[in-house]
Amino acid sequence: xxxxxxxxxxLTIDGKPVQVPEGTSIWDAARRLGIDIxxxxxxPRMRPVGVCRMCVVDIGQRTMAASCVRPCExxxxxxxxxAKVDQHRKMLTxxxxxxxxxxxxxxxxxxxxxxxxxxxxxAIQDIPxxxxxxxxxxxxxxxxxxxxxxxxxxxxxxxCIRGCDELQHNDVITRTGKxxxxxxxxxxxxxxxxxxxxxxxxxxxVCPTGALTNKSVFAEMQVx
Amino acid sequence: xxxxxxxxxxxxxxxxxxxxRPAKVKEVDSLCPYCGVxxxxxxxxxxxxxxxxxxxxxxxxxxxxxxxxxxRYGFDYAMHEQRLTQPLIRKAGSYPKGPLSSAAKDSTGAxxxxxxxxxxxxxxxxxEAGWDEALDLAASRLKQIRDTHGGGALAGFxxxxxxNEEAYLFQKLVRVVFGTNNVDHCTRLCHASSVxxxxxxxxxxxxxxxxxxxxxxxxxIVTGCNPTENHPVAATFMKDAATKGTKLIVINPRxxxxxxxxxxxxxxxxxxxxxxYNGMMHVMITENLIDRDFIAKRVEGFDALKKVxxxxxxxxxxxxxxxxxxxxxxxxxLFGSAKxxxxxxxxxxxxxxxxxxxxxxxxxxxxxxxxxxRPGTGLHxxxxxxxxxxxxxxxxxxxxxxxYQSVKDPRIQEKFEKYWGVKLSPQVGLTVTEIxxxxxxxxxxxxxxxxxxxxxxxxxINKVRKALSALEFxxxxxxxFTETAEFADVILPASSxxxxxxxxxxxxxxxxIGRPALQPPGEARQDWELICEISNRMGFPMKYDSVEQxxxxxxxxxxxxxxxxxxxxxxxxxxxxCADPKTSQGEMIVxxxxxxxxKAKLVPAQVTEPDELPSNEYPYVLNTGRxxxxxxxxxxxxxxxxxxxxxxxxxxxxHPLDAKVLGLSEGDWxxxxxxxGEITLKVRVHDRTIQGSVFIPMHFREAAAxxxxxxxxxxxxxxxxFKFCAVGLTRxxxxx
Amino acid sequence: xKLLTKMMHLxxxxxxxxxxxxxxxSKSEGVPLHRLEGLRGFYPVFRxxxxxxxxxxxxxxxxxxxxxxxxxxxxxxxxxTGKPGVEIEEVxxxxxxxxxxxxxxxxxxxxxxxxxxxxxxxxxxxxxAHVPTTTPRRWPTDPYTNDKEHYGVLKKFLKPGDxxxxxxxxxxxxxxxxxxxxxxxxxxxxxxxxxRQAPGTPKYVICNADESEPGTFKDRVILEELPHxxxxxxxxxxxxxxxxxxxxxxxxxxxxxxxxxxxxxEKARGAGALGKKIFGxxxxxxxxxxxxxxGYIMGEETALxxxxxxxxxxxxxxxxxxxNHGLWGKPTLMNNVETFSAIPIILDRGASWWAAQGKGNYxxxxxxxxxxxxxxxxxxxxxxxxxxxxLLTLCGGIPEAKGLHAFSPGGASTNFLPASKRxxxxxxxxxxxxxxxxxxGAMVFMAEGRDVLELAISEVKFFRNESCGKCVPCxxxxxxxxxxxxxxxxxxxxxRLVHLLEDLNATLxxxxxxxxxxxxxxxxMSVISYFPDDVLPKLEGSGRRK
Lengths: 224, 736, 546
Known about the structure:
The complex is a heterotrimer of chains A (224), B (736) and C (546). Chain A is 22% helix and 16% strand.
């Protein structure tokens, strides 16, 4: 989006003043100041959806604002790094960890599990919630030749859906179900390897957790 | 339980090895080796084991971190155990030359000519040799042919998948050392007709606007191409534009997936393209949806064009194309009323015996509406190979030196004679298709092939087999033992894309650097060094300290590349032309003021019939092409685990109504026959293929589409009409 | 609406929505398969596999829990297990709390004892007729005495029909201080003014008739007995903002109410109140009913909009608000049934008359739906400012002469208050000051002896069951909150449980996208605050579940 013609907005984030074109999100404005508000469901490559709530900031209103979707307003005083805000981020991370599988396929293969990175950042030692991962009730799907699906590690961040449908326009992935048992699905809830998936790998690339990872390249290299 | 893995984070973090990831990895910023989109990516490498673990998309100008299945997962071919690792020399007992693969290795067990390559069958005919022996043999035999019969008895096929540096050195070798202009590459089979028309029409064969400029187009024609499968990441940007309001007019007798995003999808009869475009221009001229100002200032030949298209009334065109007059009018209006309209095209336009005429029509469409030189306009022949643009720019073409400077022009000849320090031939060389004929006749006796597999990619491969067998001497330089290499006298093991440094020019005119992530296996060597070796051993010293030096030499003799070097190309490359690399990324859009030829020249086209029409014995039109998961002759992709798993077998796609008539069901085995040969393969029934036509992908050695295709060529582009010949189908049964 | 309407039609015709049907729909509508799966998987009305001939759905929420006992669902299930052609399912509140315990059989509401329900389900008794009443009651907010007078207010304002009339309407609504009665209490005059001013076209008027919170059934009665008031107000709304299309989004459990509304719409068309050039003015406006494919969250205004746009009913982030960016991104006026239905009389008799209907300084009349431990549960139209105690008396008091222990004044999300607060006036501000909220006006009375923790947890379970799943705090947090309390009641409380619940509640309240997550734990926290002697021992593990 061209900066040029838009009105300029002034606000402060963590006490620091910043000026941005109208329509800029608080998250983007913070980045300009070098403040990296933690995110799981957001990427600058995609439309923001504000579902993980990790990026919440205090703007002095009744509820916190998800900075990735909230546009800056003139005179806003944003607290992005207060103890109160961190408390929420820690709580959200703990909630997600309570259902997370013991080993992250992502951490093991590409070392970039973003949920575990947050766990480390917030030095989470104990999770006070019931363990939802025992017995891996959400299941896995190994039908794709290239991508391993571990529903237990899925945090329903919607990135694979946006990657597949809005970046690659392959239109394969959706959420199905509702509430606590909501999960991602391919086509009409078919196994990934039997769906219209073209194995572009975008979903795997954007997934922040071990839900969608690469199967090993060397699993069965056949000689022809 | 939770405490357990939290401790593990620390363990993983400190770099200890886990089940999949090694302790230490290296990241190499490079490119995808496959198509002309030229996606930037990063290879993540286990250096100790010399293997690539996975790839990650980079934020390159063509792809914005997006990749397709080939770029994402198709890199493992480079590590396949069938990589050539030693120079090979044909044993004395394996002459006269002929195909060495006798049995097909697919599940049919049937013996077919041109069957699948089996190393167990081939290797006994060759012996491993040291580099000196192999190179000396190659150089001496080529030299002998040159000295006895003249340079014209030699020819070279360079590679559109190799780097600019390799292409430049290769054509230099052929011109300087062989003493002939008989150098060509697979562009001949691809966009040769498009480039011929563009050079004729505007003086430049490169695209005028980059792919992603479609976001600025109100309307875009996407014709004769299937970008979702063959330029997948480019297609994602077309779909972005379509979802944001750009109206696509998709034209293709075989319905491409991108038609799902189209404002209009037109399904003309195969071979009726010229009629359709003339019809659209008829509508546009009649309704004054043309840019008279632009025509007056920048175009020649409008009146002649107008006269010709006047005869292509919507009703006449409807009869010729099988479309409705209403659709033709609507398409003409849609394109003509747009403020900015762009034209993308592919093999459906170019791979015809009238491919040049087709491209002339597209050029005319753009010119009479003033749709060039502005955002959201222009002509974009989607370049297939990752470096076909660069290979052509580097002069790997019989009619021109680097940067399309004509070999016939004495001043140009003098310039290059000075630059290279030898006398050069002023005779236009033979093209790929002409070289095969010449080999069969015996006038071309020796060949050097680098990274090309004409045995599968050329039309009428039974004839190609005879031609290759007839050669006195053939050097094949490649990474795998290809079908073509079966006819070689010397095979030189070369470097894959992942093992070399080089520049590659994508479909957008973007020059990007590819960097090595692996060490070549065994004794395999860098292609550019091997070219120098042969040159040296044939008497012309070629010595460079680095591949970068080669680039500098190449760039200096061109207009388009001369401002570029490895420093300013950096990690993300530049578009050419780039007047000031310090401040600019290069030009996304060109020809805003004038064309290289001054004014654009319109050349009207008349409908001509395809060379070989359906008949009683051969009632169906054969359409050939590609699928998403495979690349061309399959040397790379059929050795990639993921790609080969997803799409392991050959097929012929038949329309449901044709299937009914032929008594065919999904999965049945069928014999497809043309005047040139026959193949056996499985049937897929789908209505995306137009009734009366069948589609066979070119990739599968055991059922090679090119056994059937017609070698008749377009008179100007010299490109074979891969998209149209006549075949008959016979059901064999539900088993092979 | 198109895709959901087609899918609901398939469900109705075939009792199931199969993959094959969706493949055909995908082709005919040009939408990818995943979109249809997303809808089929989200909305409760859709089934992947065919069901039994008799589909029994038993309510599991607070009032039915009180009236039927905690074993009610289980008893119905065990009585019907094995009976051929019968399937039983527990569902969330079906909106028949005045005749609790409630169930539905093939969407027909039935009530009473387990025996009664079994008799209906096994065919021993024919299902009761489920048709609208032919004798609707007269209510104090209806300015009309007979059918022929209907739409008189509309005629009055549409006659001149110009902008000064619109200004006048806004003025009256503001003076009357009418507020949103679906729970949010946003000033109606302001909402009408903002939507009128909002740029964009076309605009829409939507009535949120998806009342689904346990204990809430007031809109149900208004829909059945006063639909003409709702219709009239929507037409006025359309005229106000410049919209030509109105939609009533009604929950599928209100089948006979929908019938009543449909009949009234047809009557209105016949009378010239709907359609083109209404009553000879330049105003075009028409209404359609959209039946919800199910789920409490559909009552959240942006989730409702998502459904109308053929998407999963997951609330949007706000801002922007529907006033500016509503249906299809256009300005949308959305009000609750009761809010709309109050408008004709206010415009007819004026703001002062409306004010005078309230007690003391309070203004207007409020529809309260009362259930739980009362002799005469039902809908009562009372003056604003009536006290909780006065309302209880009006409803016949608590049966068996028991004392009042607690009450929940405004719906499932509102804090439980102790009996000591019984003198609180029914008013938004007053109830807030008392420590709760008037919300929707759904009053549930709880007699002495009631286990408020059990009842509060049933409300939290309701929110957990109805969470759309989009955002982390609500989806995971509501689930873990219930887990924590159940673990405590089973004798294994987490360390520092109350502090943990407070922290968890703070995160849900502060970071959830929509109201559901924000209030999901509120009832639980309120009983911890107001009934500590009762509740804390249970949570700390020293008390036992009864």
